[in-house]
């Protein structure tokens, strides 16, 4: 997705970038082994390098339908030829002791099947967002993890990203007063001729176009910035059906969440406007802005009003390395599972509620089904890696 193109290219003018803190890596034999399932843009661009930078994890296996591509990536990264699997032979990973964690990086509609197969093979699973294309699939994935007694984590990288964590920490401190309004905008132009976008524009494979792909960052972001769950949603869409990209999925969707505290979140997402991944949190005495707030790199946090006005200086870190290290530590039992399957399910249920409201012309849809997150990331994930 566009995060790739914009990642790192988004310079933050006037904000000095400190170097990321150097973490002592664990010895090779103590690192947990990851199998990457699906060798597309995210795997090649971010996850292979992320596993090189990880402190306690390493790449040990590849799963792909393209033997030549997998062999090329394996040779470039010191992966043994017998650690390359195809989709038909995937279940043989059960006998491969080099694999501790399986990272599902496939089109969204394939997450459920490969997560469940990996769990049945006795492996822990890190699964990309959105968790699946239906709440029923998410529930089956959660049940499979429970039955297998293995960990299932959803790859919500912003829960491990310093600017987002610092925003959460400041909001929770109360120093700006009550947060009353969150605004999130997640968008980019999509390109039907790009295979990586073609499946995102296919309703069945993506589960909802821009909303499932990018809007989920805003849904998830409003929830973790406020640390509460929406009880009502209203949403509207604006889609030009003559645009070949939007024959099956909506283009622009705007929604409003109402939270129990009285706070409101305004969210938008589009695959047909210029790129943005940003948030604003309006509190009684200050406003926190992350613009950009959810790119791979170059994110900012700016404060307007209240204490500490101006840019907040934080280093760029490799979010993917940190997230994969966090998962490895979850498996080791040394850190809490802050983004479990239940977090993914909550966002997929909210995606479904947004699409229901769109279908009913903006009617209010109740979302007060009683979900509460197990851990506040703002309380348990340090702003910077230790
Ligand atoms: P991509 O299209 O670049 O890669 C998908 C891979 O799956 C390709 O190698 C493709 O060959 C393979 N594949 C197997 N079966 C397929 C099928 N039936 N149709 C299409 N492709 C098939 O996509 P990507 O950008 O790497 O995204 C993969 C997953 O990662 C998605 O769930 C996406 O939401 C997620 N993602 C997350 C982030 C993030 O920042 N966390 C960023 C990008 C993508």
UniProtKB/TrEMBL annotation:
<feature type="domain" description="Gfo/Idh/MocA-like oxidoreductase N-terminal">
    <location>
        <begin position="33"/>
        <end position="156"/>
    </location>
</feature>
<protein>
    <submittedName>
        <fullName>Oxidoreductase</fullName>
    </submittedName>
</protein>
<dbReference type="GO" id="GO:0000166">
    <property type="term" value="F:nucleotide binding"/>
</dbReference>
<dbReference type="InterPro" id="IPR000683">
    <property type="entry name" value="Gfo/Idh/MocA-like_OxRdtase_N"/>
</dbReference>
<dbReference type="InterPro" id="IPR008354">
    <property type="entry name" value="Glc-Fru_OxRdtase_bac"/>
</dbReference>
<dbReference type="Pfam" id="PF01408">
    <property type="entry name" value="GFO_IDH_MocA"/>
</dbReference>
<dbReference type="InterPro" id="IPR055170">
    <property type="entry name" value="GFO_IDH_MocA-like_dom"/>
</dbReference>
<dbReference type="Pfam" id="PF22725">
    <property type="entry name" value="GFO_IDH_MocA_C3"/>
</dbReference>
<dbReference type="InterPro" id="IPR050463">
    <property type="entry name" value="Gfo/Idh/MocA_oxidrdct_glycsds"/>
</dbReference>
<feature type="domain" description="GFO/IDH/MocA-like oxidoreductase">
    <location>
        <begin position="166"/>
        <end position="289"/>
    </location>
</feature>
<dbReference type="InterPro" id="IPR036291">
    <property type="entry name" value="NAD(P)-bd_dom_sf"/>
</dbReference>
<keyword id="KW-0560">Oxidoreductase</keyword>
<dbReference type="GO" id="GO:0016491">
    <property type="term" value="F:oxidoreductase activity"/>
</dbReference>
């Amino acid at each position: 997705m566009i995060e790739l193109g914009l990642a790192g290219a988004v310079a933050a003018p006037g904000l000095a970038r400190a170097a990321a803190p150097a973490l002592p890596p664990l010895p090779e034999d103590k690192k947990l082994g990851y199998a990457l399932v699906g060798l597309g843009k995210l795997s090649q661009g971010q996850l292979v390098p992320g596993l090189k930078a990880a402190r306690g994890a390493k790449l040990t296996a590849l799963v792909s339908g393209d033997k030549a591509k997998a062999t090329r990536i394996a040779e470039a990264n010191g992966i043994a030829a017998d650690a390359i699997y195809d989709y038909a032979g995937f279940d043989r990973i059960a006998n491969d002791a080099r694999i501790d964690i399986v990272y599902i990086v496939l089109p969204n509609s394939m997450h459920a099947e490969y997560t469940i197969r990996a769990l049945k093979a006795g492996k822990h699973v890190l699964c990309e967002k959105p968790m699946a294309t239906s709440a029923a699939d998410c529930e089956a994935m959660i049940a499979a993890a429970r039955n297998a007694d293995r960990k299932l984590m959803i790859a919500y990288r912003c829960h491990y990203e310093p600017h987002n964590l610092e925003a959460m920490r400041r909001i929770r401190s109360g120093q700006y007063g009550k947060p009353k309004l969150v605004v999130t905008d997640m968008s980019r132009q999509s390109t039907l001729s790009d295979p990586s976008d073609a499946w995102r524009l296919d309703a069945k494979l993506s589960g909802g176009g821009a909303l499932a792909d990018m809007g989920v960052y805003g849904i998830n972001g409003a929830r973790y910035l406020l640390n509460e769950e929406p009880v009502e949603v209203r949403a509207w869409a604006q889609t030009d059906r003559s645009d070949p990209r939007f024959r099956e999925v909506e283009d622009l969707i705007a929604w409003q969440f109402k939270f129990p505290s009285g706070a409101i979140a305004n969210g938008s997402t589009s695959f047909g406007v210029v790129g943005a991944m940003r948030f604003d949190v309006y509190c009684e005495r200050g406003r926190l802005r992350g613009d950009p707030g959810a790119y791979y790199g170059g994110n900012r946090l700016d404060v307007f009003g209240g204490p500490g006005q101006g840019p907040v200086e934080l280093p760029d870190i490799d979010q993917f390395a940190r997230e994969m290290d966090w998962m490895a530590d979850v498996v080791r039992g040394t850190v809490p599972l802050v983004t479990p399957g239940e977090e993914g399910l909550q966002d997929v249920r909210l995606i479904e509620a947004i699409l229901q409201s769109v279908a009913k012309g903006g009617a209010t849809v109740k979302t007060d089904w009683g979900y509460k997150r197990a851990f506040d990331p703002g309380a348990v994930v340090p702003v910077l890696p230790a």
